[in-house]
């Protein structure tokens, strides 16, 4: 008899947790959408820099703005994947980090930096690419399809 009360309590707590997580995630998705909208508006606002700065400086600022918005879009994909699949996909997280790292690489093009820092960024990018390939190759979905 005690087992059924404990199981009912556990089931109610799981349902409460799932509904709470989905509610908070819904608020987070709204915040992410607002961040994307503000990023796009800010990118258009930075178009004025073309007339004020050199082309290199203006395009660098605009490019970093665009890549930052794309990183936030990848975060939105991660949140939406949690809604649809009930779990976070590692590939989406890796994609987000890769876009963010590539944004920094684009910013490095316009700076003098030591070769050690550049080598570290290249190594990080290659490591993320390898992890991305491994995550796709050994994903739970592909294992379920093979079974």
TrEMBL record:
<keyword id="KW-1003">Cell membrane</keyword>
<keyword id="KW-1133">Transmembrane helix</keyword>
<dbReference type="InterPro" id="IPR020948">
    <property type="entry name" value="P_starv_induced_PsiE-like"/>
</dbReference>
<keyword id="KW-0812">Transmembrane</keyword>
<feature type="transmembrane region" description="Helical">
    <location>
        <begin position="116"/>
        <end position="135"/>
    </location>
</feature>
<protein>
    <recommendedName>
        <fullName>Phosphate-starvation-inducible E-like protein</fullName>
    </recommendedName>
</protein>
<feature type="transmembrane region" description="Helical">
    <location>
        <begin position="21"/>
        <end position="45"/>
    </location>
</feature>
<dbReference type="Pfam" id="PF06146">
    <property type="entry name" value="PsiE"/>
</dbReference>
<feature type="transmembrane region" description="Helical">
    <location>
        <begin position="57"/>
        <end position="80"/>
    </location>
</feature>
<feature type="transmembrane region" description="Helical">
    <location>
        <begin position="92"/>
        <end position="110"/>
    </location>
</feature>
<keyword id="KW-0472">Membrane</keyword>
<dbReference type="GO" id="GO:0005886">
    <property type="term" value="C:plasma membrane"/>
</dbReference>
